[in-house]
Amino acid sequence: MVAEGRCALEIKQICEDKKQVLELLLLADEQESMIDRYLDRGELFALYDNGLKSVCVVTRESETECELKNIATYEAWHGKGYGSKLLHHVFTYYRGKCQTMTVGTGDSPWILRFYEKNGFQIFHRVKNFFTDNYDHPMFDNGVQLVDMVYLRRPL
């Protein structure tokens, strides 16, 4: 009996044609013009496990700090650990290059729990970020996002 083949989980850095994963990036940041602000200057990582499952973009903000600008996993694969695996890959990648990683996100309990589970702690809030910077109201689980919550973790 021959066992059916299975592709191993793989994380790749995408350096060219970054917009090939725009559909997935838009799940985490609904406005393409906002993604355009960081995509070209950021490093894009993609996690594959029998196909693309998750992506993230990280930018260097200073000599000591990098920022997770976007992380998205297809909804069908939520809760399977792909986002955390991708985060741990970028933590290792940036360790020694930066001292801290920050992330800004909406004030949504399930998203904040995800980041806190992965070692981030809240340190700052920008009032009215989503209402001031997006051309349409942003919602998560039926609740309008208003403030940006910033979290950070040491690398």
Structural summary, described in words:
The model is unreliable at 1-5 (pLDDT under 50). The strands form two sheets. Strands 1-2-3-4-5-9-6 form a seven-stranded mixed sheet, sandwiched between helices. It has a two-stranded antiparallel sheet with strand order 7-8. The radius of gyration is 16 Å and the shape is globular. The chain has a single domain (10-154), classed as Aminopeptidase (3-Layer(aba) Sandwich), CATH 3.40.630. The longest helix has 13 residues, at 82-94. By secondary structure, the protein is of the alpha+beta class. It contains five helices and nine strands, in the order E-H-H-E-E-E-H-E-H-E-H-E-E-E.
Give the helix/strand layout.
Blueprint: E1 10-14, H1 22-28, H2 32-36, E2 43-48, E3 52-60, E4 65-73, H3 82-94, E5 100-106, H4 109-117, E6 121-126, H5 129-133, E7 138-140, E8 143-145, E9 148-154
Parallel strand pairs: 4-5
Antiparallel strand pairs: 1-2, 2-3, 3-4, 5-9, 6-9, 7-8
Task: Give the name of the CATH superfamily.
Answer: Gcn5-related N-acetyltransferase (GNAT)
The 3D shape can be described as: globular
CATH domain class name: Alpha Beta
For the largest beta sheet, what order do the strands appear in spatially? 1-2-3-4-5-9-6
Using DSSP, what is the number of strands?
9
SS strand fraction: 35-45%
> Percentage of helical residues?
25-40%
